[in-house]
Amino acid sequence: VGLGLLTCILVEVQLGRRRLLWLVPPLAMGWANFHAGVFMGVMLLALDRIAARLAGDRGVSWGTIALVITLTAAATLLTPAGCKLPEYLLFHAQLGSTRIIEEFRSADPYNDPWFFGLLGLCLGGGCMLGRAHLPRIVPILLLTAQAWRSVRFVTKWTFVATPLIAIMLDRTGH
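RE: above sequence
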């Protein structure tokens, strides 16, 4: 849910509703109290905003971007676990190598053809849409690496990839 909400906010920010960016730190605080995946929100926010600036979006200053990212990162620690989230994430990242669990398997074309089909659409969309949509493309690349490594990230990848696929299909008239 947090990743979906964050993606919606970032799309709206890219469309010009820049004040919505200030909703991200409170979103991160709530998200952190329900799921350790909040670390992905900080990475997604940083990648999205830096890519937007590199693509020529000057609507949000570097100072504002840095402040929102810092507040968002700090908000992830406002939980009963506090500063133990990074330690937990490191432990969790190693589980796949210590146990045979379905959700930790690598994605492959035989078991996950829909993932690879959507990935193909994203690659085509990224090439077709170009630099202006860099904020949508860069986070997808990060999550693609995670999703390919562990299928548990495929659903998170889908939340982030869907807006790019929708924009591409809209541009092609589908």
